[in-house]
Write a structure and sequence with these properties.
This protein is mostly helical and about 200 residues long. The protein folds into three domains: about 60 residues, no CATH class; about 100 residues, no CATH class; about 35 residues. It has nine helices and two strands; from the N terminus they run αβαβααααααα. It has a two-stranded parallel sheet. α3 packs across α5, α3 crosses α7 and α5 packs antiparallel against α7. The two termini are about 35 Å apart.
């Protein structure tokens, strides 16, 4: 679910690698992303570009993800990124990082994903969605096949009605199967390291 490389400002590589880069305001900058697994490059490029003075050229990102679940996760994180409501920026950043990196979510973040699932699900249809014009005008579904759209709609439906799933028990069973007879040693080592880090922070 996560990419293996650090987030990059892709425009820096466009300037150094493409010798035909001409700053014509009418021509958009087109960037193709192949299997990035998450929108880290896209977000950093947008943020860096918005801070520049000569940011008059539009940027078109073309995203290719063969797995529909990862593509749906892209849209969810972008929805959070473009959600310009009255929530403070620090709180939005905390929600973004929690949803980006964890499977054990707080109730507030789980409810927020449910609300986003309704927005993303309605985005597939032609009905206009009020209060979400920024995100609707940013993402283009026209390159998706109808089968891909149906898969995304089913994924968004599943987010709106999540089933109970005990991630902690699943992880324990997986670790027991992986370590076998050494599982007790593994648990003692983890507990020892947690105790060591807590004592180190107290100093």
């Amino acid at each position: 679910m996560w990419g293996l490389s650090p987030c990059l400002d892709l425009l820096l590589y466009c300037r150094t690698c493409n010798h035909h880069f001409t700053p014509i305001p009418s021509n958009p900058i087109r960037i193709l992303l192949l299997h990035p697994c998450d929108p880290r490059h896209l977000i950093k490029t947008i943020v860096r570009y918005s801070r520049k003075e000569n940011n008059h050229r539009p940027i078109h990102f073309y995203l290719m993800e063969p797995i529909s679940e990862i593509l749906a996760r892209h849209l969810l994180l972008l929805q959070i990124f473009f959600d310009c409501d009255k929530t403070p920026i620090r709180k939005r950043a905390k929600e973004f990082l929690e949803i980006f990196g964890n499977t054990l979510l707080s109730k507030h973040s789980a409810d927020y994903i449910t609300r986003c699932s309704f927005i993303l699900r309605e985005f597939d249809y032609d009905e206009p969605k009020t209060g979400n014009s920024d995100f609707r005008s940013t993402v283009d579904y026209s390159y998706l096949r109808q089968r891909d759209r149906d898969e995304l709609t089913n994924i968004f439906h599943s987010w709106a009605s999540p089933e109970s799933y005990d991630v902690a028990s699943f992880r324990e069973e997986r670790m027991r199967f992986y370590y076998g007879n050494r599982y007790d040693w593994y648990v003692r080592r983890i507990c020892y390291r947690k105790d060591y880090l807590s004592r180190k922070q107290s100093y």
